[in-house]
Amino acid sequence: MYRLSERSLRFGGAANGSDSSSRRRAHARPLLPTALYGAVLLCSAIAYTILQTAVIGAQGPHSNLATAVGSDLKGKLSIAAYVLAIPMAFVNQWISDALYGAVALLWLVPDRRIEARLTRA
């Protein structure tokens, strides 16, 4: 059974003597989930790249998809941003979150090359 002391009632602390620094740590953003989220995003980007390479390999290097994708700058930038964001989660989580958001915004804009190339075929 916990005893409430007069100090804990006055300052809002717990009965076990915890101070404000432990409360601040309890409300800090966790580091590991941000980094693990980046790892999941990185695995998804790698899987997409593997799938895209397999489809282009099956269709040939001169297929409509291969010419539409070109050098795949968006895919390479995504992987690079995720690789950078994972360790940044342990340095500054806001930078890591900004990189995740930037990649999401990058892919939100549709790639007109693929759409235009496939409609002409």
Which short descriptors sum up this protein?
121 residues, single chain, mainly alpha
Describe this structure in words.
With 121 residues, this protein is mostly helical. The chain contains 7 helices and no strands. It is elongated, with a radius of gyration of 24 Å. It starts with 5 loop residues before the first helix and ends with a helix.
Based on helices, strands and strand pairing, what is the structural class?
mainly alpha
Q: How much β-strand is present in the residues?
A: under 5%
Helix tally equals 7
What's the number of structural domains?
A: 1
Helical residue percent band: over 70%
Secondary structure: number of strands: 0
Rg over CA atoms: 24 Å
Query: What's the end-to-end separation, in Å?
Result: 75 Å
CA-based shape: elongated
Major beta-sheet overview: none
Which series of helices and strands comes N to C?
HHHHHHH
Average of pLDDT:
81
Detail the poorly predicted runs.
Answer: none
How would you summarize what this structure contains?
The chain is mostly helical and 121 residues long.
What is the topology?
Layout: H1 6-11, H2 20-27, H3 31-59, H4 64-69, H5 73-91, H6 93-108, H7 112-120
Helix pairs in contact: 3-5, 3-6, 5-6
